Amino acid sequence: MARRDYSMLGSDARRAVETGLATAEWYHTDIPRKDMKALMKRTDSPAIQDTLILFGCMAVFAAVAIALWPSWVAVPFWLAYGVLYGSAMDSRWHECGHGTAFKTPWMNDAVYQIASFCMVRNPVTWRWSHARHHTDTIIVGRDPEIVAMRPPALIRILLNVFGILDALNGWKRMLLNASGRLDPEEATFIPEQEHPKVVRVARIWTVIYAATLASALLAQSWIPLLFIGLPRLYGAWHHVMTGVLQHAGLADNVLDHRLNSRTVYMNPVSRFIYWNMNYHVEHHMFPMVPYHRLPELHEMIKHDLPEPNPSIFAAYAEVWPALKRQLRYEDYFLRRDLPATARPYREDLHADALGIPAE
Predict the structure, then answer these.
(1) Is there a domain that residue 48 lies in?
(2) Which residue from 74, 73, 77 is spatially nearest to 57, judged by alpha carbons?
(3) Domain range holding 260?
(4) Where are the beta strands (DSSP E) in the chain?
(5) Residue 339 CB contacts under 8 Å (≥ 6 apart), including other chains
(6) Total structural domains in the chain?
(7) 283 Cβ partners below 8 Å, 6+ apart?
(8) Over the stretch 297-337, which tens digit does the pLDDT of each residue have?
(9) Residue 348 is assigned to a structural domain of this protein
(10) Residue 41, domain member (yes or no)
(11) How far apart are alpha carbons 184 and 115 in whole angstroms?
């Protein structure tokens, strides 16, 4: 096969439209309508509790770190603050972007705006980008959020463990948007009437960052930057560690989330930071189910899904060899076995993808 073209404006984007992969109908496990309606019911209390814990911990860690500064004893508290700023905000951005974390719309929007700022993701741009990700999940040339491309850009992933490329690209895009312009690829999925909103947000953010930088220079202190901006770098490692596992090493250009998404059992701390997005097959099949109901959804449909990886470590034991093999043969992918109770994969629908040598 020819080298994959991940551009939203390239040959694979056109091919996805021509072959019917774009905006296609996906496989879903059958769930009784009554049960699905109950799962999709929204409530404020779980997300309010989690948000109070999150911001409370951030306030405590930052206060202790500032009080101990410039002693090295402050470092663990800055690191803990950074993980909540640079990783937990990733999952809050994600779930509140779906509008499912809270029942009350303004609560979803408030947390979404804060989390978008922390992650340096324009809230207007990324709302449309993520909608495309769900519509065309891991469809080459259509999905703008593919992390583990083929062949895998391992250096890029490693640099993003420290937030380097994603954050720098975010700040670069912020300045571009603040100048009144959009990237050509952004324009393929953001409606024209939304463009002024993209620019307005970017200009507000630019003012905030300028004020933060000025405060650091005037005070001759790193504290303002350790509080705003730099945590996106030194706290990014957890969201990259968990995010890579979502789709890496699995099939692309298929219409069954059981083939291109991965569910991983995780420890309670990582699940809090990640807001249950470790149930990723379930989330992609039914994205309107709130994060706090995903464990229930998993129990209801696990008979139809591949066996989850039992831990983060076990998942990487599966992913890492697959990524190394893709460096030499980019068409390789992992095909997860289904239990006997599951409906089989559509061999006819995915003939091209499933004809590739797989395990």
Answers:
(1) yes
(2) 77
(3) 11-354
(4) none
(5) 303, 304, 305, 306, 307
(6) 1
(7) 261, 277, 289, 294
(8) 999 999 999 999 999 999 999 999 999 999 999 999 999 89
(9) yes
(10) yes
(11) 25
